[in-house]
Amino acid sequence: xxxxxxxxxxxxxxxxxxxxxxxxxxxxxxxxxxxxxxxxxxxxxxxxxxxxxxxxxxxxxxxxxxxxxxxxxxxxxxxxxxxxxxxxxxxxxxxxxxxxxxxxxxxxxxxxxxxxxxxxxxxxxxxxxxxxxxxxxxxxxxxxxxxxxxxxxxxxxxxxxxxxxxxxxxxxxxxxxxxxxxxx
Length: 184
Ligand SMILES: Cc1cc2nc3c(=O)[nH]c(=O)nc-3n(C[C@H](O)[C@H](O)[C@H](O)COP(=O)(O)O)c2cc1C
Fold this sequence. Notes:
This protein has 184 residues and is α/β, with parallel strands linked by helices. The chain is built from 6 helices and 5 strands. It has a 5-stranded parallel beta sheet, sandwiched between helices. Strand 3, helix 3 and strand 4 form a beta-alpha-beta unit. The longest helix has 17 residues, at 159-175. The chain is globular, with a radius of gyration of 16 Å. It binds flavin mononucleotide (FMN). Flavin mononucleotide is lined by residues 11, 13, 16-19, 78-82, 113-114, 116-117.
């Protein structure tokens, strides 16, 4: 069975460490797991329940379809003012009212490029659990990546990165077994 994981970064910054961490993850994902970065959360409109009916904006439908086709999620998000970035929370809000339950019971692994972003990570976990997602990993890097200019190639040879991503992959793999496969 090929495990399909959708990765979402909570940062829109061109040089985002969280995004580059997910790009590195897509390269070192274990055999049997494919990881695709969904990098269009900035195209989602601001969540408005009035727009969340039988028909939803095309960007929302495409986001939901991506998640429906995934066995699990890998999220890496920065912290802004001790909270989850608005763009990340906005994306999650678009999943709450969906009748197709894109995230319900789905394994979600959280990684974080920052060792100190504890408030946002805790808030993200609370929101995901409230949405009935299964948070299977909460892994932060132990050292800051800010001292060097990393790209996805240099990043994936950092032992701390390999450790964190390996823990996330292992948690996703063990949560996604053929018996509880949930792909649409
Ligand atoms: C407006 C703003 C607020 C921030 N607030 C926090 C914060 O409360 N806690 C924290 O740990 N980092 C905070 N940071 C630092 C970012 O989380 C950090 O730079 C992170 O690496 C950004 O992620 P990125 O590299 O993926 O864009 C803040 C950064 C900005 C620009």
